[in-house]
Design goal:
heterodimer; A: 242 residues; mainly alpha; B: 100 residues; 0% strand; flat
Chain lengths: 242, 100
């Protein structure tokens, strides 16, 4: 009897985590699909086949560098050049992953590994502003569900863009370009309301980013803003109540 | 064939920075200040990702992104769920681009 009710409880807590993950993943989906479709269209024009452009989404799963990659392929850039540019653009994920994985210390490596693979700016932002789930028993299902929602939206959206071409009218897709920024803002503002210093960290990072953009590529500028802006947290954040 | 190689190369160089931390946090114990630094990273990343990127959604008219961003701030400030913040910002940008 005991094991039956235990199983039931387990099942319900798992389902709850997955549902919550899907709910917080939904805004990412809304933001990703129009961008993914645009990528699909652009990659097709750049001369990639439907299989190639979808495979790139499956294997790379990084918006900005896929746009850049497709562009560079169209311009006839060399493979090494494209790969190095991709590395530079995505290096920020190292810093983000280090922060997120440090939160997930309790979680088993067999879950941390796939979660880290699915890390993007967006999945990182949503995951790390939901820190409580990391301490819960089935928390990895929450992060897994939101990451998978993002991943599938990206892959399916790219494929659709490659097949259908420009299905979303220009004004609408441009308007939807605000979606991910609005999501970032929607994540940040409640934290700032709770703890004003958090807003200061974000503003410092913005300023560093703006300054660095004057003399480096946007990939490095975001790394600098994130790393140096985050350093201000050493002084601004209170001791962690773990 | 060369495109396939490019895709695989891109995949490897994006995968490594994402995955390596998963393995090293198990091996390392961080000092308090490093933990505080890592805990501040999400907020710093959000700041760096929001600005000035938000200005670029309409490259010719940076004020559209700026206004959309402010709409998002207000909606989030009054306590709306992220999804409504996103929808509200999309609508405001849509209205701005079609009406102006």
């Amino acid at each position: 009897m005991d094991t039956v009710s235990e199983n039931k409880k387990n099942y319900f807590s798992s389902m709850l985590m997955i549902k919550r993950g899907l709910a917080v993943g939904f805004p990412i989906m809304l933001g990703y699909i129009p961008i993914a479709i645009t990528y699909g269209v652009l990659a097709k024009q750049a001369g990639l086949s439907l299989m190639e452009l979808t495979l790139m989404s499956v294997l790379v799963f990084a918006g900005a560098s896929q746009f850049m990659g497709a562009n560079m392929i169209a311009l006839g850039a060399g493979a090494v050049e494209i790969i190095i540019a991709t590395f530079v653009l995505n290096f920020r994920h190292f810093v983000m992953s280090l922060s997120f994985m440090n939160r997930l210390r309790e979680v088993d490596l067999k879950w941390k590994f796939p979660l880290s693979l699915g890390l993007t700016d967006e999945t990182f932002a949503v995951s790390s502003l939901h820190t409580n789930e990391a301490k819960e028993e089935k928390g990895f299902l929450f992060y897994g569900a939101l990451t998978l929602t993002a991943y599938l939206s990206w892959v399916i959206g790219s494929f659709l863009g490659g097949v259908l071409g420009k299905v979303i009218p220009e004004t609408l897709s441009q308007s939807m370009g605000i979606a991910l920024y609005a999501m970032f803002i929607g994540l940040l503002v409640p934290s700032v309301k709770k703890e004003l210093r958090v807003g200061l960290i974000a503003v410092i990072a913005m300023l560093i980013n703006v300054i660095c953009l004057q003399f480096m590529s946007s990939g490095w500028a975001i790394v600098a803003g994130t790393v140096l802006g985050g350093l201000s947290g050493v002084f601004l954040l209170k001791e962690e109540r773990r | 064939m060369i495109i396939l190689l490019i895709i695989i190369g891109m995949s490897v160089v994006t995968m490594l920075p994402r995955v390596i931390p998963a393995f090293i946090v198990d091996k390392l114990q961080f000092k308090d200040w490093v933990n505080r630094w890592l805990n501040a990273i999400p907020y710093a990343a959000l700041g760096a990702l929001i600005f000035p990127g938000v200005l670029s959604i309409n490259a010719d008219k940076p004020h559209i992104g700026l206004i959309g961003g402010f709409v998002a701030i207000i909606l989030a400030y009054v306590g709306l769920n992220v999804i409504f913040v996103v929808i509200g910002a999309i609508l405001s940008v849509f209205l701005l681009t079609t009406l102006l």
